[in-house]
Specification:
Layout: H1 2-21, H2 34-65, E1 67-75, H3 77-86, E2 97-107, E3 110-119, E4 122-132, E5 137-141, E6 149-153, H4 163-177, H5 186-202, E7 205-216, E8 219-231, H6 232-247, H7 250-259, H8 263-287, E9 295-304, E10 309-318, E11 321-329, E12 332-333, E13 336-345, E14 348-359, E15 362-371, E16 374-385, E17 396-401, H9 409-414, H10 420-430, E18 433-442, E19 447-456, E20 459-470, E21 485-487, H11 491-500, H12 504-512, H13 517-557
Parallel strand pairs: 6-21
Antiparallel strand pairs: 1-2, 1-20, 2-3, 3-4, 4-5, 5-6, 7-8, 8-9, 9-10, 10-11, 11-13, 12-13, 13-14, 14-15, 15-16, 16-17, 17-18, 18-19, 19-20
Helix pairs in contact: 1-6, 2-5, 6-8, 7-8, 11-13
């Protein structure tokens, strides 16, 4: 019973945190109490939902109809030198880049990914994947090797899947084929957020209200701090109100109508949903008996002179002591701004903090990620757009480095080993390495690129570039009319598939990409040996069958 109560408390705390974090740094206007502050922030959030959500749904539909993706791994000079050394001095000066250029679409219950594999900007082969979500079957074709297809079920027979699990997987994959069919519209989403957000906010008891300074990295703002308290008993009340309201919520019932293919199935699903709520409420009534714990959930917001929320803190209060579990503070002074994000649980903590200056809409600053109080990652931000021309289309650069961990010299001299030594050695392994993340976007062309460069001692090893944009979509074949398909779960079928492969075009493309003749010949020998090895079991089995037949005939003659 106590364990159930603890789970319920943690669940309630998680729900509270999530719901209140959503309102973020919204303007609270002339709020004069904790509840008024949160309600003003919630109203601001729900007012902006329709435009944001409708834009998201529109972009998803465009992306599902057709999108393009290019992933390129460019090997730099230092990277080639390192690879060559690891390969015993092999010359890899010919290796410049490896790319995967893809067109993607989701339509008519099929997810299609048509890709080209390139080496040094020269195409090696196409790699086409089609997932038939209706029949849970995947088709793969590599045209340069053969026009035939391999096919395999999304979930193989070897997996121990119950009928229910298989049905769930089918529903999940089908949902992915048209996500907009299961997502609520912006009006429903706004209504639900407003309804259940207010239930939570109304359950808070007003705590202290004091003038406090929010200060991070030397940047401060004078604020009014409002505190709200949820006792253990109130946490039960919140969950009870949420469940009771949800049980007969017309918007939620409409979602079940939207999710179901037929009326009878929808009715059964909705009744199951209501029965689950009834059972949960019954369990709550039993678990609530005899509860005497004094712990409470605390929520605190800092509001500046302009009515803007610039800080939040959630914690657990036991008597007069409050233990923070989540803290967010973002004070600013003119062009200068600072940020603190901290998560704490038991003896562990993750802290992200730093400051920067914003001029002409571009942020430049330095930030630190610390784990359990130890500086682990340093992040320098260069020219990051704070308000991009279009949501999600950012430009800017992040320079990431891993500082060497500091050790206690007294422990080292004494030869003592501590629990922190493992963390220190792991950090030291990364010291000297770094990464540069560059975001490049063109909102007018609807394209975005992320470049990730890994460095060592300041020298670049390799750069992974990922570019995404909208596309024209993919032509999907009629699976029932395919000339040849081979069952990937059938060994004999796959042996036949391998023997059908012609490597000539692929190997010619490999040589055209700049691979040395000697290495290309070695690759050809390996591929042919693999095909021969795969076909031998079938040949041996046929030979054994013929031998058994001859032996039987001889025995019969005798």
């Amino acid at each position: 019973m106590n364990r159930t109560r603890q789970i319920l408390k943690k669940s309630a705390a998680a729900v509270l945190c999530a719901s209140l974090i959503l309102s973020g740094s919204s303007t609270a206007f002339a709020a004069g109490s904790y509840q008024e502050t949160e309600k003003a922030a919630l109203n601001k959030l729900t007012e902006g939902i329709p435009e944001t959500w409708d834009t998201y749904l529109e972009n998803y539909k465009k992306s599902a109809a057709g999108s393009k993706s290019n992933m390129t791994l460019k090997v730099e000079d230092t990277g080639r030198a390192l690879i060559g050394a690891l390969m015993g001095g092999t010359d890899v000066s010919w290796l410049q880049s490896i790319s995967l250029d893809s067109n993607i679409s989701i339509k008519d219950g099929v997810e299609a990914i048509v890709s080209s594999v390139l080496l040094n900007d020269n195409k090696l082969c196409d790699f086409n994947v089609y997932m038939d979500l209706a029949n849970m079957m995947e088709y793969i074709q590599i045209p340069e090797l053969t026009d035939s297809y391999m096919k395999a079920p999304v979930s193989s027979d070897s997996e121990e899947n119950s009928e229910e699990a298989q049905q769930f997987l089918n529903t999940y994959m089908t949902t992915l084929s048209d996500l907009t069919s299961v997502l609520p519209d912006s009006k429903t989403l706004s209504t639900l957020l407003d309804r259940y957000g207010n239930i939570i906010i109304d359950s808070f008891e007003e705590g202290s209200s004091v003038e406090e300074s929010v200060s991070v990295d030397g940047i401060s703002e004078e604020c009014t701090a409002y505190e709200g308290i949820i006792s253990e008993k109130s946490a039960y009340t919140i969950v009870e109100k949420v469940l009771t309201t949800a049980k007969d919520d017309e918007e939620i019932k409409a979602l079940f109508d939207q999710w179901s293919d037929d009326a009878s199935n929808e009715e059964n699903q909705y009744k199951d949903f209501q029965n689950l709520i009834t059972d949960a409420l019954d369990d709550m009534n039993r678990d609530d008996e005899g509860s005497t714990e004094n712990e409470a959930f605390s929520s605190k917001v800092w509001v500046n002179g302009d009515g803007k929320i610039v800080g939040r803190q959630f914690g657990i209060t036991d008597g007069t002591d409050t233990t923070p579990v989540f803290t967010w503070k973002a004070p600013s002074e003119g062009e200068d701004s600072a940020l603190l994000l901290e998560l704490a649980a038991d003896d562990s903590s993750f802290t992200f903090t730093g400051s920067g200056k914003t001029a002409d809409g571009l942020l430049n600053g330095d930030y630190i990620l610390a784990v359990n109080g130890t500086e682990t990652v340093d992040i320098n931000v260069e020219n990051l757009e704070t308000k991009p021309a279009k949501a999600g289309y950012y430009n800017g650069t992040f320079n990431i480095s891993f500082p060497a961990a500091e050790t206690d010299s007294s422990d080292s001299e004494a030869g003592e080993s501590t629990e922190d030594d493992t963390d220190t050695s792991a950090t030291d392994m990364l010291a000297g390495f770094g990464a540069v993340i560059k975001l490049t976007s063109d909102a007018d062309a609807d394209t975005s690129t992320l470049d990730l460069t890994v460095t060592t001692s300041g020298a670049a090893l390799a750069t992974l570039s990922i570019t995404g944009s909208y596309g024209e979509g993919v032509e999907i074949p009629d699976f029932a009319s395919l000339d040849k398909t081979y069952d990937a779960t059938d060994d004999e079928a796959m042996t036949e598939y391998l023997t059908e492969i012609n490597w000539d075009t692929f190997l010619a493309n490999v040589k055209a990409a700049g691979v040395p003749d000697e290495l290309a010949t070695q690759l050809e020998d390996v591929l042919k040996a693999a095909v021969e090895s795969a076909s031998q079991p079938a040949e041996e089995e046929n030979a054994d069958t013929e031998t058994d037949t001859d032996t039987t005939a001889e025995d019969d003659a005798a």
